[in-house]
Structures are given as C-alpha cells and as structure tokens.
Amino acid sequence: MERIAHDSKAIALHRRINDTAVSYPDETGVGELFERRVAESPTSVAVIHRDRSVSYDELNRLANGVAARLSAAGVRPGAVVGVAIGRTPELVAALLGILKCGACYLPFDIDWPDARLRDLVAQTDCATVLTDNAEALAARLPELAVLPVDDTVVEENPRTAVDPDAIAYINFTSGSTGQPKGVPIRHRSIARLVFGARYARLDEHSRLLQLAPVTFDAATFELWGALLHGGACVLYPSRFPRFSELGRVIDTHGITVLFLTTALFNSIVDEAPEILDGVGTVLTGGEAHSLKHIDAALRRYGPDRIVSMYGPTECTTFALYHPVRERRMGETALPIGLPIQNTRAYLVGEHGLCGPGETGEILLAGPGLSPGYLGLPAGSGQFVDREIDGAVERLYRTGDRAYLRDDGVFVFQGRLDDQVKVNGYRVELGEISHHLDQHPAVRQNFVTVRETAGGDKALVAFVVSGEQPGTAEQIRDHLRARLPAFMVPAEIRFRDTLPLSATGKVDRRALLAELAERS
Amino acid sequence: MSDTVRSVDDIEKWVLGAFQDLGLTVTDVDGDFFEAGGTSLTAIKLIAKVEERFGEDTLPPDDLFATGGVRDVAATIRRNSQARGEGLDV
Asked: Buried b / exposed e across A353-382, counting CB within 10 Å, b at 16+?
C-alpha cells in the first residue's frame, strides 16, 4: 500500500478541515427513506409541475406502480433501467419506482445520437427502458424492452429490502480515450449528499427547483434534497430555461434553494438579477466563478445567500462548498471552500500532503465516492487506495489543482489535464479529438475552448486535411452522429499545419490569436 | 408601441443584429443560430432580448431549438406577436 507522507502542519490542517462526520440514515435505500416521509406526512406536497401538485402519498403509489410493472417485466435487483422521460411527476415516480425495486436508473437524453445511446446500453447491460416516447425509442433501440409510462398505482410498498451499498443510478461523463465513462452511485451516497447538509437548509419546508437535466448529477441534489426531507420539488415547466419563466416559477412557488450552473448564474446576475431576490440560498458551480459576477451578486443579495459548490460526478454532485460572505483584498479567485458533511478532501503534492500555501491535486474520500468506473476494476483509473494518517482511504483523484489557504480553504488553480468545462458541461477534449481522428478528411487535429464575443465559451477544432477532401459541415455531421450536441465544436478551421510552441506542444495561444484577428 | 405591423424584413434585420450582438458569426438572414455556434446559454440570452423587445413568450424555447435560422426566428416572433395582438414597432 502506498503511503501519502505528511508533516505535522499539513496533517493538523487536514484533520481539522476533514472533521466532517455527522450521522445520517445509511442503513437502508433511498426508496425506504422516502417511504418514511410518506408515513410521516402523506398529504404534504412532494412534486409540483405546472398547475399540478402531487402529494407524498400519491407519488408513492405511482412509484409503487412503476416498481410492480418493472418486477412483472422481469427487472431484478441490480438491473439497470434506462429512463427517457420529460420533466414531469411521472419522471420522479419512475426514478423512485426503479430504486424501490432495487434496480438502478440510467438517465438518457432522447436527443443523443444513436451511436451514443447504443454504447451506453451496451456498457451498462441495460435491457429495459421507461419512457414517455415509446414509439421513437423502440425504433431506435429495438433490442430493449420499452415500457411506456402510465398511471398505474399500487397501494403497498414493495417488500424488496435495498442495501444502502447497492447502485442507485449511473451518470456518464466525457472520457478522454473517446468512450464516455459510466459513474455508478450508491444509495448511501445520495443520503450522504442531502442529510446534515452544511451548504443549505434542507427540511420539510424546503422548496427546491428541479432545473437540471436528469442526465446531469445536479438533479440528484434537486430531487432527493427535497423528497428525502419531506419538502417539495418544483419541476421547471419547460424543457429549456428562460429568465421570464424562471422568475415566475421562483416567485409563484416560493423556491427556497436552487442550483445554477456558473454560466447561467453569471447571465442572470448580468441581465435579470431580480429573479433571485426571493430565493433563500442560491447554489452555483460547475466552472470557476468570475469575481466580477460574485461581487455584483454579493452587493445585490447580501452575505451567505450565494454558495459556491464544487464537486465531480464521481463524488456525488457536491464535495466542497464556499458561502460567499466577503471578498478578501487581493484575492484573484473565489475559493472552492471546505468539504461538505461526511466528505474528506486532501491536497497532495509531489512530497505528500500539502500544508498551508502549498499547491497540489485535490483528492476526495468518504461515502459520496463512486465504487469506480463501470467496466473497470475497482482500484483503477482515478480511484486509488492510499494510507493517510495511519488509515487506508479510498480516494478519487480529481485532476484539479488547488492551493490551501492558512484556514484550510481550497482555492482552485486549474486542471492537470485537458478536461474543460463548456457552459457547465464537463468535456474531455481527447474524446472529441478521438472522433475527429476517425474522419478520413482529418489528418491532424487540435480541439480547444475559446471565449466568444458574447462572453460564452465555445469549442473550436483546428484541422489539418487528410487524404480525402471534406468540408467543415461534413466533419460536424460525423461528430453529431457520435457525440452529444454540446461536444460538437461550433467552428472547424482548416490549416496546412498546426503551429508548435517552444516546448513542442500545439501552440494554443497562436491559434486563438489568429482566430481573434480574422473575426 | 406603433399600431402598424411593419414588414417581416425589419424583424429579420433585428434578429440578425441580435445574433451578432451575442457574438455569433452570422452575416445575413440565411444564417442559423446553432450553425453559428449558439448554445443553450446563448439561447437564454437571445430569448431574454426578444422578450424585452417583443413581449413575453414571443420566442418559445422549443421553437428556437426546433429551427434556428434568422428567418425562422423572425417568423416565430412575428406569429406570436400577432397572436397577442401587439404591434411590431422595430
């Protein structure tokens, strides 16, 4: 067993910031935790969608109906069930029903290309899918059993006892080798995320907005943060958000907590800050925050209303949090903060555990950790076992660099690899490059991110032509058939060669400078 | 707001300008929001601009995501503004 070395200062600091253990219900699955809330207050509102309110009791009976149908269809504990349902109470009932029968949910986006859907199904051995678009999906995935959602209700809770260590859901993230990586998450990890929360007040009075696509792990917080506490989950009524409707939904339903991606948060602060005036706690994260927007938000909303959240999917949605209270003089980045409850964070540099002021890689541990990427052995990839402070920790290496302030607060310093965030989406540039390479019109390619004139981030690919001729549009079509839309570069630029920097790497700066001159 | 419904071309011009203000590289009314690099985030900004100018719900997100051409977007705005009985003073 490799041991992570430490000196007394470093270990003292880490012991202090990692003293995060609080008791939480980790003896059973999410389905039963929800059933406890149903028993406590069956008539409370669980889900709000447009003008429809669904009580805990009603949602429970719908979920039991889903569980019964799945069992009848041969779905057994441990099976993977695909979910492609619009943001409706039926979606929530489907997720709950899947968990209740001990199976795990795999959210699909119906807009993903066939090749990606088939890859996900194959990687997860998914044989069944619940959907509100059965006809279209059955034609695209003929080998799956496609179950259309319906309004079957069943009174009795299923008698399946679900182990808290069973897998609850699988999210996919971009993979640098060209194949997306499946991240399985346990029931226990969901409970760890929402109970004893340090970052926001979650209780039976909470009204959480469900805005994120379910394929995105922010939805884990939005759904279970409300439903395991007896609060209400307000489903955003349209598929895509807009300021006017977002403001109306927040006001009408008295949203107490919501999560916004950094990019969406910035746009709201710039263009429609009034819509967040009534929200108790605004959680925001996904990318490094801009100090300009944080300052404006602090002035408008006051201290402790905005909480910056950090965390990879591999550690169940959130790992670190930083309430925005004040800004320090000379600060050049908003800190990503301290570990949330039941989470341990380590900063590890070349010589071992970092002390105050030192820079290293962030490693995460605790019950939020995924058991490991799908199809890879448990100890492989970024998941490692190490001895720290006399005990063995299973750790996830985030690939994120940070330094530690004297008070133990982490400050993000960029990536160790070429993973990027584009408007909230986590993208491995290598995955795009891999698919570009497969096209006969591409001999060499380099993919990077640039800032548009409108202040958004956009992917741009530089391509050296291959043997066969091809247009940018043909290459984009090739990518569209294999990647989700957010991973298809908006621009493809042809070049005779790729410029190299003094270190022999492709000179990103030179390429971007050229781009700026031409436009 | 004027009572007269101006020609569609004025709305198209306005939409083209709005695309350009958002940093999209479109040069004429044959341009397309998504082809020019529009993202879900740019879409939110565009819809906010349109609603500020023409009124709420004049560019439903689903319509924009279905077809993002300058002409299509202008047609959607025109249709929804007329349905609301409001003048289009560009």
From this structure: bbbeebebbbbbbbbbbbebbbeeeeeeeb
